[in-house]
Amino acid sequence: MVREYPIKRGHYKHIEGDKLRKIIEDFFGHVEERNGKYYTSFGSLAKIEIYLKDKRTLVVSTTPKETYSKEEALETLRRYNRFLDVVTGYTAKERAEKLKKSVLKSEK
């Protein structure tokens, strides 16, 4: 599943350059970089691909494992949401509001 997340105005300075790689390592462990994209895995996610589309947009593509436990899924979701909080500068609630607004705008 591919998702785009807006990055809070002025927040890019916290993730530019090698800072994004360090954040990914802190949350998910080992990370590989190829062609400006970062690849890792964690918990119930077999593959996580992360890159910056531009200074205002983070793109994350995830592929789930075929089998995983409920506990593994919950811990993965918690860590993934905390990661998004740090990288985008928005809380889960703020990200949900932005998503609602973008869906409503696209339906018009």
The biggest sheet amounts to:
5 strands, antiparallel
Order the strands across the largest sheet as they lie in space.
Answer: 1-5-4-3-2
**How many individual β-strands?**
5
Helices, by number, come to 3
Task: Decide which structural class fits the backbone.
Answer: alpha+beta
Quick recap of the structure?
The protein is an alpha+beta fold and 108 residues long. Helix content is 42%, strand content 30%.
What's the structural blueprint in terms of helices and strands?
Elements: E1 2-6, H1 19-28, E2 32-34, E3 37-42, E4 45-54, E5 57-64, H2 70-88, H3 92-107
Antiparallel strand pairs: 1-5, 2-3, 3-4, 4-5
Helix pairs in contact: 1-2
What distinguishing features does this structure have?
108 residues, alpha+beta, TATA-Binding Protein, five-stranded antiparallel β-sheet, 3 helices, globular
Describe the structure.
This protein is α+β, with helices and mostly antiparallel strands. 42% of the residues lie in helices and 30% in strands. It contains three helices and five strands. It has a single domain, classed as TATA-Binding Protein (2-Layer Sandwich). The longest helix has 19 residues, at 70-88. The model has no long low-confidence stretch (mean pLDDT 94). Strand 2 (32-34) and strand 3 (37-42) form a beta hairpin. The protein has a five-stranded antiparallel β-sheet, covered by helices on one side.
